[in-house]
Protein backbone atom coordinates (compact mmCIF):
# COMPACT_ATOMS: atom_id res chain seq x y z
CA UNK A 1 0.00 0.00 0.00
CA UNK A 2 2.84 2.32 0.64
CA UNK A 3 3.87 1.82 -2.85
CA UNK A 4 0.44 2.77 -4.00
CA UNK A 5 0.57 6.19 -2.32
CA UNK A 6 2.38 8.18 -4.73
CA UNK A 7 4.27 11.16 -3.73
CA UNK A 8 3.21 14.23 -5.49
CA UNK A 9 5.48 17.11 -5.99
CA UNK A 10 3.81 20.50 -5.89
CA UNK A 11 3.62 22.31 -9.15
CA UNK A 12 5.71 25.46 -9.66
CA UNK A 13 2.54 27.59 -9.64
CA UNK A 14 1.56 26.20 -6.21
CA UNK A 15 5.01 26.96 -4.82
CA UNK A 16 4.83 30.58 -6.04
CA UNK A 17 1.30 31.02 -4.61
CA UNK A 18 2.28 29.67 -1.18
CA UNK A 19 5.39 31.82 -1.11
CA UNK A 20 3.35 34.93 -2.01
CA UNK A 21 0.83 34.11 0.72
CA UNK A 22 3.53 33.66 3.33
CA UNK A 23 5.26 36.90 2.37
CA UNK A 24 2.04 38.91 2.37
CA UNK A 25 1.01 37.66 5.82
CA UNK A 26 4.44 37.80 7.37
CA UNK A 27 5.56 41.00 5.66
CA UNK A 28 2.98 43.18 7.44
CA UNK A 29 3.85 41.72 10.79
CA UNK A 30 7.49 42.25 10.11
CA UNK A 31 6.98 45.88 9.09
CA UNK A 32 4.99 46.71 12.23
CA UNK A 33 7.42 45.03 14.59
CA UNK A 34 10.60 46.18 12.94
CA UNK A 35 10.07 49.95 12.51
CA UNK A 36 12.73 51.91 14.34
CA UNK A 37 11.52 54.00 17.27
CA UNK A 38 10.59 57.59 16.27
CA UNK A 39 10.53 56.81 12.54
CA UNK A 40 6.81 57.73 12.14
CA UNK A 41 5.73 61.26 13.02
CA UNK A 42 3.41 64.05 11.92
CA UNK A 43 4.81 64.20 8.33
CA UNK A 44 3.98 60.50 7.78
CA UNK A 45 0.35 60.81 9.04
CA UNK A 46 -2.47 61.77 6.70
CA UNK A 47 -4.61 64.79 7.65
CA UNK A 48 -7.32 63.74 10.20
CA UNK A 49 -5.85 60.23 10.38
CA UNK A 50 -5.90 60.28 14.22
CA UNK A 51 -9.48 60.63 15.47
CA UNK A 52 -11.02 60.41 18.94
CA UNK A 53 -11.83 56.72 18.59
CA UNK A 54 -8.12 55.95 17.96
CA UNK A 55 -6.89 57.80 21.09
CA UNK A 56 -6.77 55.80 24.30
CA UNK A 57 -8.97 57.39 27.02
CA UNK A 58 -7.04 59.17 29.74
CA UNK A 59 -3.81 59.54 27.73
CA UNK A 60 -4.09 63.22 26.77
CA UNK A 61 -3.14 66.06 29.10
CA UNK A 62 -4.36 69.68 29.26
CA UNK A 63 -1.14 70.75 27.48
CA UNK A 64 -2.24 68.69 24.44
CA UNK A 65 -5.19 71.03 23.78
CA UNK A 66 -5.33 74.56 22.38
CA UNK A 67 -6.22 77.41 24.76
CA UNK A 68 -9.95 77.63 25.43
CA UNK A 69 -10.66 74.07 24.21
CA UNK A 70 -11.15 72.52 27.65
CA UNK A 71 -14.06 73.56 29.89
CA UNK A 72 -13.19 74.95 33.31
CA UNK A 73 -13.40 72.50 36.18
CA UNK A 74 -15.50 72.90 39.29
CA UNK A 75 -14.50 75.38 41.99
CA UNK A 76 -12.13 73.73 44.40
CA UNK A 77 -13.01 73.49 48.08
CA UNK A 78 -12.42 76.59 50.20
CA UNK A 79 -9.23 76.40 52.14
CA UNK A 80 -7.04 74.94 49.40
CA UNK A 81 -6.28 78.44 48.22
CA UNK A 82 -3.37 80.30 49.62
CA UNK A 83 -3.72 83.31 51.89
CA UNK A 84 -4.83 86.60 50.37
CA UNK A 85 -2.03 88.75 49.06
CA UNK A 86 -1.33 92.27 50.24
CA UNK A 87 -3.62 95.06 49.08
CA UNK A 88 -2.53 96.87 45.94
CA UNK A 89 -1.67 100.54 45.78
CA UNK A 90 -4.44 103.09 45.42
CA UNK A 91 -5.01 104.28 41.89
CA UNK A 92 -4.75 107.88 40.79
CA UNK A 93 -7.75 110.04 41.70
CA UNK A 94 -10.39 110.45 39.02
CA UNK A 95 -11.48 113.76 37.52
CA UNK A 96 -13.68 116.15 39.48
CA UNK A 97 -17.38 115.38 39.02
CA UNK A 98 -20.00 117.89 37.92
CA UNK A 99 -21.56 120.11 40.55
CA UNK A 100 -24.82 118.60 41.76
CA UNK A 101 -28.08 120.50 41.97
CA UNK A 102 -28.48 122.48 45.16
CA UNK A 103 -30.56 120.72 47.78
CA UNK A 104 -32.27 122.08 50.85
CA UNK A 105 -31.05 125.14 52.71
CA UNK A 106 -32.20 127.50 55.46
CA UNK A 107 -33.76 124.72 57.52
CA UNK A 108 -36.32 126.06 60.03
CA UNK A 109 -38.83 124.49 62.49
CA UNK A 110 -42.11 126.41 62.83
CA UNK A 111 -44.20 125.86 65.99
CA UNK A 112 -47.17 128.27 66.11
CA UNK A 113 -49.36 128.81 69.14
CA UNK A 114 -51.51 125.76 69.86
CA UNK A 115 -55.11 125.62 68.72
CA UNK A 116 -57.47 125.63 71.70
CA UNK A 117 -60.25 123.14 71.17
CA UNK A 118 -62.14 123.18 74.42
CA UNK A 119 -64.44 120.19 74.49
CA UNK A 120 -65.22 119.93 70.78
CA UNK A 121 -64.96 116.67 68.86
CA UNK A 122 -62.57 117.58 65.96
CA UNK A 123 -59.83 120.18 65.44
CA UNK A 124 -57.61 121.24 62.52
CA UNK A 125 -54.38 123.15 63.17
CA UNK A 126 -51.92 124.62 60.66
CA UNK A 127 -48.24 125.60 60.83
CA UNK A 128 -47.33 127.94 57.98
CA UNK A 129 -43.84 128.09 56.47
CA UNK A 130 -42.22 131.52 56.00
CA UNK A 131 -42.43 133.06 52.52
CA UNK A 132 -40.16 131.30 49.99
CA UNK A 133 -39.86 128.10 52.03
CA UNK A 134 -41.58 124.74 51.53
CA UNK A 135 -42.61 122.06 54.04
CA UNK A 136 -40.20 119.10 54.13
CA UNK A 137 -41.61 117.48 57.27
CA UNK A 138 -43.93 118.06 60.17
CA UNK A 139 -46.28 116.60 62.73
CA UNK A 140 -48.32 117.51 65.75
CA UNK A 141 -48.98 116.94 69.45
CA UNK A 142 -51.98 117.05 71.78
CA UNK A 143 -52.17 118.52 75.26
CA UNK A 144 -55.13 117.26 77.29
CA UNK A 145 -55.83 116.15 80.80
CA UNK A 146 -56.90 112.74 79.47
CA UNK A 147 -54.78 111.89 76.43
CA UNK A 148 -56.38 108.50 75.97
CA UNK A 149 -59.61 110.10 74.64
CA UNK A 150 -58.01 112.37 71.94
CA UNK A 151 -55.87 111.24 68.97
CA UNK A 152 -54.21 112.72 65.88
CA UNK A 153 -56.03 111.31 62.84
CA UNK A 154 -54.21 113.20 60.07
CA UNK A 155 -50.81 114.83 59.54
CA UNK A 156 -49.68 115.95 56.07
CA UNK A 157 -47.92 118.60 54.03
CA UNK A 158 -49.90 121.29 52.22
CA UNK A 159 -48.34 123.72 49.68
CA UNK A 160 -47.24 126.34 52.24
CA UNK A 161 -47.03 124.42 55.53
CA UNK A 162 -48.16 121.43 57.60
CA UNK A 163 -51.70 120.52 58.61
CA UNK A 164 -52.70 118.34 61.59
CA UNK A 165 -56.15 116.92 62.38
CA UNK A 166 -57.20 115.52 65.78
CA UNK A 167 -60.46 114.26 67.21
CA UNK A 168 -61.95 112.92 70.39
CA UNK A 169 -62.18 109.14 70.32
CA UNK A 170 -64.71 109.21 73.16
CA UNK A 171 -66.62 112.23 74.48
CA UNK A 172 -64.62 114.17 77.03
CA UNK A 173 -65.45 117.12 79.25
CA UNK A 174 -61.80 118.25 79.38
CA UNK A 175 -60.31 121.06 77.32
CA UNK A 176 -57.49 120.09 74.96
CA UNK A 177 -55.00 121.78 72.63
CA UNK A 178 -53.61 120.76 69.22
CA UNK A 179 -49.98 121.75 68.52
CA UNK A 180 -48.91 121.66 64.80
CA UNK A 181 -45.24 121.61 63.80
CA UNK A 182 -43.80 122.33 60.32
CA UNK A 183 -40.24 121.68 59.21
CA UNK A 184 -39.55 124.22 56.45
CA UNK A 185 -36.59 124.83 54.11
CA UNK A 186 -35.61 126.62 50.96
CA UNK A 187 -35.87 124.04 48.17
CA UNK A 188 -33.74 124.56 45.08
CA UNK A 189 -35.75 124.70 41.84
Describe this structure in words.
The chain has a domain at 104-187. By secondary structure, it is mainly beta. It is rod-shaped and about 150 Å long. Strands 1, 2, 4 and 7 form a four-stranded antiparallel beta sheet that branches. It has a three-stranded antiparallel beta sheet with strand order 3-6-5, with no helix packed on it. The chain has one helix at 12-34; strands at residues 104-110, 115-118, 122-128, 134-144, 150-158, 161-168, 176-187. It has one helix and seven strands. Helix content is 12%, strand content 31%.
Which characteristics define this entry?
single chain, 189 residues, mainly beta, four-stranded antiparallel beta sheet, 1 helix, 7 strands
Q: What structural class do you assign from the helix and strand content?
A: mainly beta
How many E-type strands?
Answer: 7
Q: What's the overall geometry?
A: rod-shaped
Name the assembly state: single chain
| Tally of separate helices | 1
**N- and C-termini, Cα separation:** 136 Å
The amount of beta strand, in percent, is 25-35%
- Helix amount, in percent? 10-25%
**Average pLDDT metric:** 80
Query: What can be said about the biggest beta sheet?
Result: 4 strands, antiparallel
Cα-atom Rg, whole angstroms? 52 Å
Q: Could you state the order of secondary-structure elements as H and E?
A: HEEEEEEE
Low-pLDDT segments: none
Amino acid sequence: MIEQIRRRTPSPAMVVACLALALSLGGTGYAVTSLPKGSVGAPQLRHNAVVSAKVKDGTLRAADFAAGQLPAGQQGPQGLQGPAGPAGKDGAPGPQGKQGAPGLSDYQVVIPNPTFVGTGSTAVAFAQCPAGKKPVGGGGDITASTNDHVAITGSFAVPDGWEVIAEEMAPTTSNWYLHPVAVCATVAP
